[in-house]
Write the structure tokens for this entry.
Amino acid sequence: MNRFLLVQTAEHLALHDEQHPEHKPLFFDFSVGKTKHRREHPGKELLLKALGKTKNPYEIIDATAGLGRDAFVLACAKHKVILMERSPIVAALLADALQRAEQIPDLAEIINRMCLVIGDAKELLTKHSADIVYLDPMFPERKKTALVKKEMRILKDLLEQDLLGDDPDTEQLLALFTRARLSARKRVIVKRPLHAAYLADVKPDLCYKGKTSRFDVYLSKIG
Ligand SMILES: C[S@@+](CC[C@H](N)C(=O)[O-])C[C@H]1O[C@@H](n2cnc3c(N)ncnc32)[C@H](O)[C@@H]1O
């Protein structure tokens, strides 16, 4: 029996964990909860500060899209975002959430600035470039703590399984970071737990610190 099941209902696509039927099925909705709050209160978003000042909207690649929450914040601020996600299951949940949000008049314009590409960013970034490349991978030390909310348990288990593939974590992160730096015209932004070491031990040019996480900024030499 398959442990994870994607179930399509009249309302949404949801991920069920047959091993833990007590866990709530996972689906995502851009119109409610924390995502709604983040749309209505952009002034608190450190990620937007980490972009730097610009008169015109940026082209941004979110190379580790997940459920698209950070990409949505970027699109709310008028930036055009390409979302890359390598897990076909996470990508299916994200595509479903984007499709539903597109039907909501208040959100349609924002969602139209977001374009999902399914695949490994290490390969996709060889064909795409942008002003900014944003990375928020599931760092090994974050696996246990990052998605502690009940509704995110399924995603955490799923991601842990994905990460146990052929790609050792540190090697895949280093390759992704190296590729991102080649593809970003202006800067690469990396989200890190507040006290974690720098990605690949490379000191960032700028750093924006929040209560639990920080955004390390690497300026592009060609920008
Ligand atoms: C921590 S989550 C990102 C959460 C996201 N920032 C949000 O706001 O919802 C990390 C995601 O990156 C994806 N990922 C990790 N490495 C990747 C790669 N090389 N290419 C594409 N996606 C990747 C994982 O599958 C996972 O869904």
Observations:
- Confidence is low (pLDDT under 50) at residues 163-167.
